[in-house]
């Protein structure tokens, strides 16, 4: 496995280049890039069809930088410099434990002050370039795709918070025992928590920019399926614990690679399993028994589902129908994967189920209801 990008580069090219980048984190970033691309393409397509429309906004131009803006830019610069300079001066330590450095109070005061001054000065000079003797109001046209940067930022913030919240609910006993460690860790993220909270943030911002919720949901369906598939590549390559149950069964086909049927996730990033003989360093464990490599199954399935959604998007006219189909497909896919995936289970009224099974069931039911509603009211919703 490749817990860090350095491990991946060494495997591909045989070079040992110490980099402070976690493989899973890189693929999360790539998932946002993939989603950004798909969302933007859909927003432009729907605007061209006249489904979405640009809006007019009044902005004030020619204003100098205010004191509050300079202070905020300075604070942001201080945080960047405080951590960045310390990381560069302690690069070896940063490579070995980037998360620990970023989440700790350690930093470089001089670096923080330097970057605070640079960020404040940059904001001051940029505003001064366009300063007018008398600031004036003007109307600007904002196209739907131009709000994507804002959408991505808020989706990332609220998606991360939601993913952490739902993950801690799922593993409540462990959270009670190690609350600080789990809250500050970048690992332990639940997809559905990110989907619910990040999606809510996106809908709110979209509505403020004149995009109806159903249209925004339709825009997001294919993009979220693609982003999920890309993110799962990171889960598999890093071995982040999202694997399946033990698979002692023989391969059904001789031509099927072993790692596609039963895999021990050597060098996994979470340190699960038993020590690997002859391995030294931080990531030297592998599972005692081979498990179903469920992340790679989800990558393949969700890429196929994305291709299907992308293919039919021109044919779907009823607002809400695309997202309804996405909900059904996503729910069925995840429910089936949960049958062979390791997860914490709830026990209620004699029933045993995982959090993902419960949410995916609601997704399928909600998707069917939304699709029926969209088809019944397509003329009123358009």
TrEMBL record:
GO terms for molecular function: phosphatidylglycerol-prolipoprotein diacylglyceryl transferase activity. It comes from the Bacteria. GO terms for biological process: lipoprotein biosynthetic process. Pfam families: LGT. One of its GO terms (cellular component) is plasma membrane. The keyword Transmembrane applies. Signal peptide: none annotated. The chain crosses the membrane at residues 20-39, 70-89, 101-124, 145-163, 183-206, 295-312, 358-375. Keywords: Cell membrane, Lipoprotein, Membrane, Transferase, Transmembrane, Transmembrane helix. The keyword Metal-binding does not apply. InterPro entries: Lgt. Belongs to the Lgt family. This is Prolipoprotein diacylglyceryl transferase. It comes from Pedobacter zeae.
């Amino acid at each position: 496995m490749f817990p860090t990008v350095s491990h991946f580069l060494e495997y591909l090219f045989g070079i040992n280049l110490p980099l402070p980048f976690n493989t899973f984190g890189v693929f999360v970033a790539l998932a946002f890039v993939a989603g950004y691309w798909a969302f933007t393409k859909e927003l432009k397509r729907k605007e061209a069809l006249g489904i979405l429309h640009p809006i007019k906004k009044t902005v004030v131009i020619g204003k100098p930088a205010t004191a509050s803006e300079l202070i905020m830019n300075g604070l942001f610069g201080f945080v960047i410099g405080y951590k960045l300079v310390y990381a560069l001066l302690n690069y070896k330590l940063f490579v070995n434990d980037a998360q620990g450095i970023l989440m700790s109070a350690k930093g470089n005061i001089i670096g923080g002050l330097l970057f605070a001054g640079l960020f404040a000065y940059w904001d001051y000079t940029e505003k001064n370039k366009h300063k007018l003797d008398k600031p004036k109001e003007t109307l600007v046209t904002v196209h739907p795709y131009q709000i994507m940067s804002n959408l991505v930022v808020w989706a990332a913030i609220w998606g991360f918070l939601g993913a952490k919240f739902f993950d801690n609910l799922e593993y409540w006993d462990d959270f009670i025992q190690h609350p600080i460690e789990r809250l500050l860790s970048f690992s332990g993220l639940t997809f559905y928590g990110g989907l619910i909270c990040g999606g809510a943030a996106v809908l709110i911002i979209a509505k403020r920019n004149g995009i109806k919720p159903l249209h925004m949901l339709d825009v997001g369906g294919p993009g979220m399926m693609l982003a999920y598939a890309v993110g799962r590549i990171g889960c598999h390559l890093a071995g982040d614990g999202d694997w399946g149950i033990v698979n002692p069964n023989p391969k059904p086909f001789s031509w099927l690679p072993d790692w596609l049927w039963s895999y021990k996730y050597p060098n996994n990033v979470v340190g699960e399993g038993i020590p690997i003989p002859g391995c030294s360093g931080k990531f030297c464990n592998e599972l005692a028994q081979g498990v179903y490599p469920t992340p790679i199954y989800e990558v393949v399935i969700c890429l196929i589902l994305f291709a299907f959604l992308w293919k039919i998007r021109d044919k779907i006219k009823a607002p809400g129908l695309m997202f309804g189909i996405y909900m059904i497909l996503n729910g069925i896919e995840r429910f089936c994967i949960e049958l062979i995936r390791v997860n914490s289970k709830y026990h209620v009224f004699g029933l045993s189920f995982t959090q993902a099974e419960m949410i995916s069931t609601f997704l399928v039911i909600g998707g069917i209801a939304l699709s029926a509603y969209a088809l019944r009211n397509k003329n009123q919703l358009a």
